[in-house]
Amino acid sequence: MVTLTDTAVATLERVLAGSGAAARGLRIAVADGGCAGLKYQMGLESQAADGDAVLEFGAVTVFIDAASQPHLTGVVVDFVEGVEGSGFRFDNPNATGSCGCGKSFSTGSCSTPPQGAAGGCGSHAH
Fold first, then answer.
1. DSSP assignments along 65-124, one per residue
2. Percent of the chain, pLDDT > 70?
3. Boundaries of domain holding 36
4. Considering the domain boundaries, does residue 121 fall inside one?
5. What pLDDT score does 7 carry?
6. Whether 62 contacts 13, CB under 8 Å
7. Residue 40 sits in a domain of what CATH number?
């Protein structure tokens, strides 16, 4: 489903270690929004929810809700540092388009809106 690079795992291990006992892992989700229709969301999470895929990468646990799973199949998440800033980068083979800033994407199918989507895939809500 999702793969984290060694750099992403090391970064997340540091973040989780500094977050205290409440955060047990990272939630990765896809939501409606952004210039291209869909956007990635990431946040620290204390436990899995019903229907979540739970992936283990060493000391890092990743939670992915059922609605986001089809959009994240085959995705590689990396952490990059450069002169333009640092952050997580998603290499998504399912993306058929993206906005210029690379923060949102679109896929060929919008038949099932992501969980919590308002207006459905591609509403271009910002």
1. -TTTHHHHTTEEEEEEEETTEEEEEEE-TTEEEE-TTSSEEEES--SSPPTT-SS-TT--
2. 80
3. 2-107
4. no
5. 97
6. no
7. 2.60.300.12
